[in-house]
């Protein structure tokens, strides 16, 4: 750690220092994570509320670091977004989700659409479109099996770019979900201007079910609005039976959360799909 001078030890508490030490190493190691085969894609099922069937899944990246162990994407995605590595990382993830889909198709496994988290930052660099087209062409994946998840907040941050990008993505046949919905303070009329297929209600609202009538009212109106706009609604972070029952009552279409399954490795996900054991 030669870049950490004596001064750092005087300014920061020991704990903070360990954190910055880790941050520093993660940042430099991240660029080697692809070639070192340290990245793994996990899948978390999305369940149809009325039937209990897996109708889709979200892909979630995991970094198996040789020293730090499993590093959370909450920790390294922000680093990648800051140092610009997010584009290369995001392209790798999309490509590998497509490769998984193709492999499952070849093995004649039951396939469901997979959603992929995309940083809106990707659309700021003009090569994004050709990269996606190249991935679709080389893997021969049906674009209808892919949905991009873009957070409401970043959509608003890059308003002009995302609006045009969404249109292009739709034309490619890829679906669009608005992630962490309800946290970005966008108005309803504003949302209706964008070509959006799915609204994912943020976990913070779901956690308040049976605890706060205010949040329950917000959830009800989000579901009602999404239906009126002909969008699919997914509730994220559903953990309890009370939350599930409330969402069923409100006719929320899809449920994602620990109540059914955590994000799991490919093998486990395939086993779940085969059995459809999830109630
Ligand atoms: P997100 O897109 O909002 O993903 C949902 C997160 O909620 C996941 O955390 C998931 O494991 C977690 N989750 C799902 N159900 C429950 C539940 O019932 N209870 C609780 N407490 N948590 C639940 P994860 O996998 O740690 O990912 C965190 C964030 O990192 C994601 O939030 C997303 O913003 C980012 N991320 C993950 N994978 C990727 C990726 O491939 N690309 C990009 N750009 N970002 C990613
Ligand atoms: Ca997401
Ligand atoms: Ca989310
Ligand atoms: Ca989030």
UniProtKB/TrEMBL annotation:
Residue ranges of domain EAL in the record: 23-277
Name of the protein this chain belongs to: EAL domain-containing protein
Full-protein interval shown: 557 to 835 of 987
């Amino acid at each position: 750690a030669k870049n950490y001078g004596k001064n750092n030890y005087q300014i920061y508490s020991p704990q903070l220092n360990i954190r910055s030490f880790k941050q520093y190493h993660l940042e430099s190691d991240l660029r080697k994570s692809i070639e070192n085969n340290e990245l793994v894609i996990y899948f978390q099922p999305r369940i149809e509320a009325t039937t209990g069937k897996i109708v889709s899944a979200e892909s979630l990246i995991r970094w198996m670091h040789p020293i730090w162990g499993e590093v959370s994407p909450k920790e390294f995605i922000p680093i990648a977004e800051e140092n610009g590595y997010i584009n290369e990382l995001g392209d790798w993830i999309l490509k590998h989700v497509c490769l998984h889909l193709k492999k499952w198709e070849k093995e004649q496994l039951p396939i469901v659409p997979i959603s992929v988290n995309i940083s809106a930052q990707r659309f700021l660099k003009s090569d994004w479109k050709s990269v996606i087209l190249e991935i679709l062409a080389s893997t021969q994946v049906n674009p209808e099996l892919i949905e991009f998840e873009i957070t409401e907040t970043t959509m608003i941050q890059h308003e002009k770019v995302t609006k045009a990008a969404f249109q292009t993505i739709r034309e490619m046949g890829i679906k669009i979900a608005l992630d962490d919905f309800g946290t970005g303070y966008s108005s309803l009329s504003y949302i209706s201007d964008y070509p959006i297929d799915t609204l994912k209600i943020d976990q913070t609202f779901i956690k308040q079910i049976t605890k706060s009538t205010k949040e329950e009212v917000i959830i009800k109106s989000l579901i009602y609005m999404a239906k009126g706009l002909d969008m699919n609604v997914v509730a994220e972070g559903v953990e309890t039976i009370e939350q599930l029952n409330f969402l069923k009552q409100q006719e929320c279409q899809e449920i994602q959360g620990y109540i059914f399954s955590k994000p799991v490795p490919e093998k486990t996900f395939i086993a779940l799909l085969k059995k459809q054991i999830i109630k």
